[in-house]
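Something for you to look into today, if you have time. Just paste the record in under my message, thanks.
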Amino acid sequence: MKHIVSKLEGDRIIWLVVVALSLLSLLAVYSSTGTLAYKYHSGNTEYYILKHFTLMVFGLFLMYMAHLVPYRYYAKVAQLLLILSIPLLIYTLFFGTNKNDANRWITLPIINLSFQTSDLAKVALIMFLARTLSLKQDKIKSFKEAFLPLILPVFAICALIAPANLSTALILFMTSLLLMFIGRVYILHILGLIGISALVGALFVSLLFALPEKNLVGRMPTWKKRIEAFASKDGKEQFQVTQSKVAIAKGMIFGKGPGQSTQRNYLPHPYSDFIYAIIIEEYGIIGGVIVLVLYLVFLFRIIRIVVGSPKAFGALLAVGLGLSLVIQALINMAVAVNLLPVTGQPLPFISMGGTSLFFTSFAVGIILSVSRSIEKGGETGEVSKPSTGSKDDHIVIDDENVEALAAA
C-alpha cells in the first residue's frame, strides 16, 4: 500500500476524496441496480457492479496517467480537441444513438461502446478557454481581441450541445462565464452577456409556453413538462421527485443501512440521476452530508492549487475543470431534494459508470498534474502575477514564451 501511495503525486487530499467517492459509489451502485439486474439479467446483481468496478478502475488508471503528463502540454492539444469536438457534436445531433428521446451518444463500432460527445466537448472547451485567457492577459479588457475570441467558441459548443442536453449546455455556459471572470475578462462584457442571455432565456420560455404542443419539436416538450412539473408540483416529472423525497424521508438521520433501500424499486434511474436520494435513504442525512462535504473539500483543495500555482494557465485549467465537476455535483444533489427541476445530470464519481466517468477521471488527472507541477516547484523561468494597480499586468503561463505556445 505504501508503495502505491508513493507513486501518487499531486494533492493527496484530492486523491483521497476521489477514492472515498469511488468506494461509496460501489456500495450505492450495487444497491440501486437490483431492479435493473432482475429486469435485464435474470437477477444477476453482480453484473452491474462488476461492470461499474471495471470502468471505475480504468478511470482511476486514466487519472493516474493524465496526472503524469506535465500540464503545459495540455495547452498544445486544447485547440485540436476543440476543433475535433465540433464535427463530433454535429454528427451526434443528426446521426447519434438515440436514448431517452435524445441523440447524445455515438456508438463506437466493433467494441459497441457508446459515449457522450458533450463530455469531450466540455473538457476541450475549458482547456481552450484556460489557454486563451492565459495568452491574452495583456489585452484581456479588449472586446475585439479578448472577449470575442473567448465567447464565440463557447456559443458554438453550447449551441450544439443544447438541443439534446440543455442542462449540460447551461452548466458549461455558466462555468465558462465563471472562468472568464476569474481570468480577469472585463466585467461589463460579462454582465452584458448575462443580461442578454437572461433576456433570450425569458423569451424562449415564453415561446415554449405560447406555442401549441403540436408545434414543439425535439426536446422542447420535455423541457416544458419539467418546468411545469417543478412549478405546479404535479405530473410525471414530479413522480421522480416525490419518490426521491420519500427515500430521503425514510433515511432520516442514520439511514436504513447498506442495501436496505426500498425506493430503488420505484425511483426512475436510482443508479444515476437520483443516486443521491438512495445514499440518503441507506446512510441517512449523515451520509448525504458526508458526500456534500467531500465535494466541498475537493473544491477547497482546487482553490489551494489555484493560489499556489505560479502560472496562469495551470491555475485557470484547474479551477475551470474543478468548477465544472463541483457545479454538476451540486446540481445533481439539488435536483434530488427538489431545489431544481429534473436535469438528468449524473453525480461525478458516484453515479453508475459510463464513458462520462472516463472524462471525469481525465479532468481530475489534469488538475492533479497542475498540483504535481507545484509540488515539484513549477517550471523554470520568471513569473509575473497581476497586481491590483497596473492595467498592463499579465501572467506568463509557461517556461516557453507566449509566441511559441500560440503557434503550437
